[in-house]
Amino acid sequence: MNSEQLTSLLRTVLQFAGGIAVGRGWVDAETMTALVGAVVTILVTVWGLYARRNAGLVASAAAVPGVQTIAAAPALADKVPAANVVPAR
Length: 89
Known about the structure:
Elements lengths: L2 H21 L5 H23 L2 H9 L7 E3 L1 H6 L5 E3 L2
Parallel strand pairs: 1-2
Helix pairs in contact: 1-2
């Protein structure tokens, strides 16, 4: 599942839960719209920061077809579970 699919799923689940909360009178529609927008924005930002950490970037590069070997710092190479990522000498 990529980040776009995850964002879409999260937005749908939050809208569904928000619809229930509005329908039961727990919050009004404007407040729920603001809450869903805030939660989605925060979670997407956190996910983006996680996916763009050094190990995540190296793992993404290692998954590209045609990439044979990536030499990385030994500590970073140990964090990436890919056969084509090797410690630099």
